[in-house]
Protein backbone atom coordinates (compact mmCIF):
# COMPACT_ATOMS: atom_id res chain seq x y z
CA UNK A 1 0.00 0.00 0.00
CA UNK A 2 1.30 3.44 -0.89
CA UNK A 3 1.99 5.81 1.99
CA UNK A 4 0.80 9.14 0.65
CA UNK A 5 2.53 10.93 3.48
CA UNK A 6 5.86 10.35 1.77
CA UNK A 7 7.14 10.23 -1.78
CA UNK A 8 7.13 12.52 -4.77
CA UNK A 9 3.93 14.07 -6.11
CA UNK A 10 5.94 15.99 -8.69
CA UNK A 11 8.47 15.06 -11.35
CA UNK A 12 12.01 16.28 -11.75
CA UNK A 13 12.84 19.42 -9.80
CA UNK A 14 15.49 20.82 -12.12
CA UNK A 15 15.32 21.63 -15.80
CA UNK A 16 17.53 23.93 -17.83
CA UNK A 17 20.32 25.73 -15.96
CA UNK A 18 19.25 29.04 -14.44
CA UNK A 19 20.60 32.32 -15.71
CA UNK A 20 23.14 34.09 -13.55
CA UNK A 21 20.62 36.63 -12.20
CA UNK A 22 18.11 33.90 -11.38
CA UNK A 23 20.74 31.91 -9.53
CA UNK A 24 21.72 34.95 -7.48
CA UNK A 25 18.09 35.73 -6.59
CA UNK A 26 17.45 32.13 -5.56
CA UNK A 27 20.33 32.49 -3.12
CA UNK A 28 19.48 35.96 -1.81
CA UNK A 29 15.80 36.84 -2.27
CA UNK A 30 14.16 33.42 -1.97
CA UNK A 31 15.39 32.87 1.62
CA UNK A 32 13.71 36.14 2.63
CA UNK A 33 10.42 35.21 0.96
CA UNK A 34 10.36 31.53 1.85
CA UNK A 35 8.13 30.26 4.65
CA UNK A 36 10.48 28.74 7.22
CA UNK A 37 8.92 25.50 8.41
CA UNK A 38 11.89 24.90 10.72
CA UNK A 39 10.45 27.65 12.91
CA UNK A 40 7.31 27.15 15.01
CA UNK A 41 4.12 27.99 13.08
CA UNK A 42 2.67 31.37 14.00
CA UNK A 43 -0.46 31.64 16.08
CA UNK A 44 -1.88 33.89 13.36
CA UNK A 45 -0.88 32.96 9.82
CA UNK A 46 -1.44 36.53 8.65
CA UNK A 47 1.65 37.55 10.63
CA UNK A 48 3.82 35.87 7.96
CA UNK A 49 3.24 38.81 5.66
CA UNK A 50 4.75 42.28 5.60
CA UNK A 51 1.39 43.58 4.39
CA UNK A 52 -1.66 43.94 6.60
CA UNK A 53 -3.78 41.12 5.15
CA UNK A 54 -7.28 40.02 6.04
CA UNK A 55 -7.07 36.43 4.78
CA UNK A 56 -4.58 33.85 3.51
CA UNK A 57 -4.76 31.68 0.39
CA UNK A 58 -2.42 28.96 -0.89
CA UNK A 59 -1.57 28.10 -4.47
CA UNK A 60 -0.10 24.61 -4.60
CA UNK A 61 2.08 24.03 -7.66
CA UNK A 62 2.02 27.46 -9.30
CA UNK A 63 4.11 26.52 -12.34
CA UNK A 64 5.56 29.72 -13.77
CA UNK A 65 3.69 31.80 -11.21
CA UNK A 66 1.41 33.65 -13.64
CA UNK A 67 -1.83 33.15 -11.71
CA UNK A 68 -0.19 33.41 -8.29
CA UNK A 69 1.49 36.74 -9.05
CA UNK A 70 -1.59 38.14 -10.79
CA UNK A 71 -3.85 37.36 -7.85
CA UNK A 72 -1.38 38.69 -5.28
CA UNK A 73 -1.08 41.95 -7.23
CA UNK A 74 -4.86 42.19 -7.74
CA UNK A 75 -5.72 41.49 -4.08
CA UNK A 76 -3.19 43.30 -1.87
CA UNK A 77 -5.28 42.68 1.26
CA UNK A 78 -5.05 38.89 0.79
CA UNK A 79 -1.89 37.01 1.75
CA UNK A 80 -0.79 34.41 -0.81
CA UNK A 81 1.61 31.53 -0.20
CA UNK A 82 2.83 30.03 -3.45
CA UNK A 83 4.21 26.48 -3.51
CA UNK A 84 6.38 25.23 -6.37
CA UNK A 85 9.12 22.59 -6.05
CA UNK A 86 10.27 22.91 -9.68
CA UNK A 87 13.35 25.15 -9.64
CA UNK A 88 12.74 26.94 -12.95
CA UNK A 89 9.19 27.87 -12.00
CA UNK A 90 10.25 29.18 -8.61
CA UNK A 91 13.12 31.12 -10.18
CA UNK A 92 10.67 32.90 -12.52
CA UNK A 93 8.45 33.89 -9.60
CA UNK A 94 11.39 35.10 -7.52
CA UNK A 95 12.68 37.20 -10.43
CA UNK A 96 9.22 38.70 -10.92
CA UNK A 97 8.99 39.58 -7.22
CA UNK A 98 12.40 41.20 -7.40
CA UNK A 99 11.17 43.46 -10.20
CA UNK A 100 7.75 44.14 -8.66
CA UNK A 101 7.78 43.30 -4.93
CA UNK A 102 4.53 42.21 -3.31
CA UNK A 103 4.30 42.48 0.46
CA UNK A 104 1.45 39.94 0.49
CA UNK A 105 3.38 37.14 -1.23
CA UNK A 106 5.39 34.34 0.39
CA UNK A 107 6.94 31.28 -1.22
CA UNK A 108 7.69 27.63 -0.48
CA UNK A 109 9.96 25.61 -2.77
CA UNK A 110 9.52 22.09 -1.42
CA UNK A 111 6.85 19.38 -1.14
CA UNK A 112 3.48 20.96 -0.36
CA UNK A 113 2.75 18.17 2.11
CA UNK A 114 5.50 19.46 4.40
CA UNK A 115 3.99 22.93 4.42
CA UNK A 116 0.48 21.60 4.99
CA UNK A 117 1.67 19.57 7.97
CA UNK A 118 3.32 22.69 9.43
CA UNK A 119 0.46 25.15 8.97
CA UNK A 120 -1.87 25.74 11.93
CA UNK A 121 -5.27 24.11 11.85
CA UNK A 122 -8.13 26.19 10.40
CA UNK A 123 -5.76 28.94 9.26
CA UNK A 124 -6.27 29.10 5.48
CA UNK A 125 -9.15 30.83 3.72
CA UNK A 126 -8.73 29.18 0.35
CA UNK A 127 -6.58 26.94 -1.85
CA UNK A 128 -5.84 26.88 -5.56
CA UNK A 129 -4.47 23.79 -7.26
CA UNK A 130 -4.25 24.54 -10.97
CA UNK A 131 -3.18 22.02 -13.58
CA UNK A 132 -1.23 19.69 -11.30
CA UNK A 133 0.89 16.96 -12.84
CA UNK A 134 -1.75 14.41 -13.97
CA UNK A 135 0.58 11.40 -13.92
CA UNK A 136 -1.41 9.98 -16.85
CA UNK A 137 -0.06 6.41 -16.73
CA UNK A 138 -2.18 4.27 -14.45
CA UNK A 139 0.84 2.87 -12.61
CA UNK A 140 1.71 6.45 -11.60
CA UNK A 141 -1.74 7.46 -10.36
CA UNK A 142 -0.56 6.90 -6.80
CA UNK A 143 1.60 10.01 -7.27
CA UNK A 144 -1.35 12.30 -7.94
CA UNK A 145 -1.54 14.93 -5.23
CA UNK A 146 -5.27 14.54 -4.80
CA UNK A 147 -5.59 11.55 -2.52
CA UNK A 148 -7.23 10.83 0.86
CA UNK A 149 -4.18 11.81 2.93
CA UNK A 150 -3.65 15.14 1.18
CA UNK A 151 -7.36 15.93 1.30
CA UNK A 152 -7.17 15.36 5.05
CA UNK A 153 -4.26 17.79 5.10
CA UNK A 154 -6.23 20.39 3.18
CA UNK A 155 -9.26 19.89 5.41
CA UNK A 156 -7.20 20.36 8.56
CA UNK A 157 -5.60 23.67 7.52
CA UNK A 158 -8.65 25.19 5.82
CA UNK A 159 -11.18 27.18 7.81
CA UNK A 160 -14.79 26.00 7.81
CA UNK A 161 -16.35 27.50 4.70
CA UNK A 162 -12.98 27.95 2.96
CA UNK A 163 -12.85 27.33 -0.79
CA UNK A 164 -10.77 24.80 -2.71
CA UNK A 165 -10.39 25.46 -6.45
CA UNK A 166 -8.99 22.83 -8.81
CA UNK A 167 -8.42 23.08 -12.56
CA UNK A 168 -7.24 20.45 -15.03
CA UNK A 169 -7.43 19.74 -18.74
CA UNK A 170 -7.04 15.98 -18.23
CA UNK A 171 -10.43 14.24 -18.09
CA UNK A 172 -9.16 11.28 -16.07
CA UNK A 173 -7.74 13.59 -13.40
CA UNK A 174 -10.94 15.63 -13.27
CA UNK A 175 -12.92 12.41 -12.74
CA UNK A 176 -10.34 11.22 -10.20
CA UNK A 177 -10.63 14.48 -8.26
CA UNK A 178 -14.42 14.46 -8.26
CA UNK A 179 -14.47 10.88 -6.93
CA UNK A 180 -11.98 11.63 -4.17
CA UNK A 181 -13.72 14.84 -3.16
CA UNK A 182 -17.09 13.07 -3.17
CA UNK A 183 -15.73 10.35 -0.91
CA UNK A 184 -14.25 12.82 1.57
CA UNK A 185 -16.85 13.89 4.15
CA UNK A 186 -15.24 17.29 4.68
CA UNK A 187 -15.92 18.89 1.29
CA UNK A 188 -18.93 19.72 -0.86
CA UNK A 189 -18.94 20.42 -4.60
CA UNK A 190 -20.46 23.81 -5.34
CA UNK A 191 -21.46 23.25 -8.98
CA UNK A 192 -25.14 23.73 -9.71
CA UNK A 193 -24.96 23.40 -13.51
CA UNK A 194 -22.52 22.28 -16.20
CA UNK A 195 -21.54 25.91 -16.78
CA UNK A 196 -20.06 26.02 -13.28
CA UNK A 197 -17.36 23.48 -14.10
CA UNK A 198 -16.88 24.51 -17.72
CA UNK A 199 -16.34 28.19 -16.93
CA UNK A 200 -13.38 29.58 -14.98
CA UNK A 201 -13.87 31.59 -11.84
CA UNK A 202 -14.09 35.32 -12.39
CA UNK A 203 -11.96 37.31 -12.65
CA UNK A 204 -9.63 34.75 -14.20
CA UNK A 205 -6.09 35.46 -15.37
CA UNK A 206 -5.33 31.97 -16.66
CA UNK A 207 -1.94 30.30 -16.76
CA UNK A 208 0.72 29.69 -19.39
CA UNK A 209 0.00 25.96 -19.20
CA UNK A 210 -3.73 26.53 -19.74
CA UNK A 211 -3.02 28.58 -22.86
CA UNK A 212 -0.87 25.77 -24.21
CA UNK A 213 -3.50 23.14 -23.38
CA UNK A 214 -6.27 25.05 -25.15
CA UNK A 215 -3.99 25.59 -28.13
CA UNK A 216 -3.50 21.82 -28.34
CA UNK A 217 -7.24 21.18 -28.24
CA UNK A 218 -7.68 20.12 -24.62
CA UNK A 219 -10.61 21.48 -22.61
CA UNK A 220 -10.02 22.81 -19.08
CA UNK A 221 -12.45 22.04 -16.26
CA UNK A 222 -12.84 24.15 -13.15
CA UNK A 223 -13.98 22.55 -9.91
CA UNK A 224 -14.87 24.45 -6.75
CA UNK A 225 -15.49 22.92 -3.34
CA UNK A 226 -16.33 24.23 0.11
CA UNK A 227 -14.69 22.96 3.25
CA UNK A 228 -17.44 21.74 5.58
From TrEMBL:
Keywords: Methyltransferase, S-adenosyl-L-methionine, Transferase, tRNA processing
A GO cellular component annotation in the UniProt record: tRNA methyltransferase complex
Protein's pathway: tRNA modification; N(7)-methylguanine-tRNA biosynthesis
Positions contributing to S-adenosyl-L-methionine binding: 59, 84, 111, 133
Residue ranges that the Swiss-Prot or TrEMBL entry lists as coiled coil: none
The keyword Transferase is assigned to this record: yes
Reactions catalysed, as given in the entry: guanosine(46) in tRNA + S-adenosyl-L-methionine = N(7)-methylguanosine(46) in tRNA + S-adenosyl-L-homocysteine
Enzyme category, top tier: transferase
Annotated PROSITE patterns: SAM_MT_TRMB
Superkingdom of this protein's organism: Bacteria
Known EC number: 2.1.1.33
Residues the entry annotates as binding substrate: 137, 169, 207-210
An annotated Gene Ontology molecular function: tRNA (guanine(46)-N7)-methyltransferase activity
PANTHER family: 3-DEOXY-D-MANNO-OCTULOSONIC-ACID TRANSFERASE/TRNA GUANINE-N 7 - -METHYLTRANSFERASE, PENTACOTRIPEPTIDE-REPEAT REGION OF PRORP DOMAIN-CONTAINING PROTEIN
Family: Belongs to the class I-like SAM-binding methyltransferase superfamily. TrmB family.
Name of the protein: tRNA (guanine-N(7)-)-methyltransferase
Organism field: Stappia albiluteola
